[in-house]
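Tutorial handout. Part one gives the primary structure; part two gives the three-dimensional structure as tokens.
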Amino acid sequence: MPDLLHSDLSLCDGKDFSFLFSTCNRTHSGPSLCRVTALGVGFRKELPPIPFSYGTENAFSFAESLLPAGTLLLRLDFGEGKRIVLSLREPNAIFDAIVPRVRHLSESGVFSEEKILEAEHLMERFEEGFCSEEYRHTILARLTELGNGEGWAVSRSRPVFFRSKLDGRAEKLDVTLPASYDESKRYPLFVQIVSTRYAKHPRLFEHANRDDVLFAFVSGRGFTMGSYVGDASIQEAISVLCERFSVDCDRLYAVGVSNGGAAALIQAQLSPDRFAGIAPLAGLVRKEFLTNLRPVRIINTSSKDDAMFGKVFRVINSRARKSLSYTGILTEAMSHQLFTVLRGKDFYVDELLKTRRDPFPNHIAFRTGFHRYLSCFWIRIHGIRRGKHEAFVSAEVRGNEIAIRSQNAVGLTVTIPPQVDKHRFAVTLNGKRFVFTDFAGKKILFCHSRRGFSLAEGEPDAVPFKGTGLLDVYLSPMRVVCADAEDVTLSACAEALARPSTMGHGGRIFVRYPIYGARDLPEAEAEQALAVVDCCRDLPLLNNLRKMAIVSTDQDGFSYGGERFDGPYCVMQVLQNPRNPAVSVLYINCNDSSMLKKNLFTRKMILPSYYNGFHPYLNNEALIFRDGQFFAVRENGMPLVKVT
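Part two.
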């Protein structure tokens, strides 16, 4: 029997009710009595326990005779965490009866901030409808409990609610604390990266009864493979966990199955200094970035009976075991869907705990195609050189010698590792030797020119969106701006940007960015990443963006690189936010709103994954649609080319 059972059964259906009792009687090893709680608006009443073997008709008569007037739900507790929720009325009717009281308590100051977030989250999930009928009944039961002033039962496993900066919505994390959690101690954190919005089995780790580990389920907001919205969501969740709990940041580990395994791998590849170790189960890996994982402990699990065996295991196993801290495990006769049963095994926890993150490893290698990801332990790349698509750096400490090789980097910042004696050491960069004596600083900066690398005094500014292009806005808290809410076509485009989807299973990304009019964007929100939909409207915000744009647009046509094109168009381009250059603006403008319907990428925003590499349309800095064709500017200053 699952951890939580839910059922939409009415008390008038004796046959199904009997089946529940008989099933529990056969499978339950605990007490032979079922605890029954009646829930209604403003009350909660414990009924006398009902024996499993009480019999259908007697059970009904017994329960019905004791129900208080106005009972909406029955909660049946069978012990050992097994629970069933029975609804006595249609779910939407129960929701309508419960919600006014919950909203009143939220708005009147009775609820704590945590309860306000929980209530908001539950009501939103019920109204969205993107959850199973079983879970809808669990939501109704919990909303009723909130309305009655009930908190969560004391347990090692608990929900953590927070307001996401990404879209301003209430979000939930499922956390299992160490058996004797002590705020004065630092604990390793294991994050399970899941594809659903929340964990289906939040008590997965409670059986472990460990005193040494903190577990949490972290959502990539859908089948995102840890990319774009998924990337931002995972990073935000880990930050919340590190703020709320006492976490040892040198012992942070990630586990994931399939899509979650791919997310764990790409997160470690993009930020090798984030996790001490990862345990992907049947997860895809981006092979171009394999060398980035050198300092990370990896336990990779697959099976020859998995249809994805070649992509998730063979491609990494042959390379990784030669140079990485890597263990490859092949299980017997497991299809892709079965790996979920392994994710909670103590083996992965015990093995990964043997490794701590070393902030200053002697040998690192790092390849990146994104300006959002330029740092690897004690080296930071200043940017990728114009016209180049990736930058690479490898570095090794040999006594008091630091040997560095670099390709396509604008410059480098080297933080001197503590194992190097600053009284006298040398840095060799692409064969050029720099000697330092009695060095008092912490960092050395280099810049690249035609003559090679030389010492520098500062790090140059670099646009944040190289490599991510038009999709860069989905890596930050974002707000959508619609130039004209009365225009149905512009509004539809704004809605598509606010609710992106994915090509992964189900297609759903669990995010909904707020939409504002161009006249009423709050000052505080103007500093976030923005996705702006325009049709040559004459408004201050839009006029300012048009002045900054690399592709000039007006009512008649557009200009780029000294060439002019007249006629209907739709231009998508990415800019730095003038209010906050660290984030981007996706600016979409057209001179005919019907072009938004004809442009595939303004009808529906489908986010790709990092696994697939550079997207030929959406990772450009500008994408122009005209005459039924697409033309792209990969990087500002590069030529406009047709995309086929």
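Part three, for discussion. The chain is about 25% helix and 30% strand. Residues 469-643 form a domain with the Chitobiase; domain 2 fold (CATH 3.30.379).
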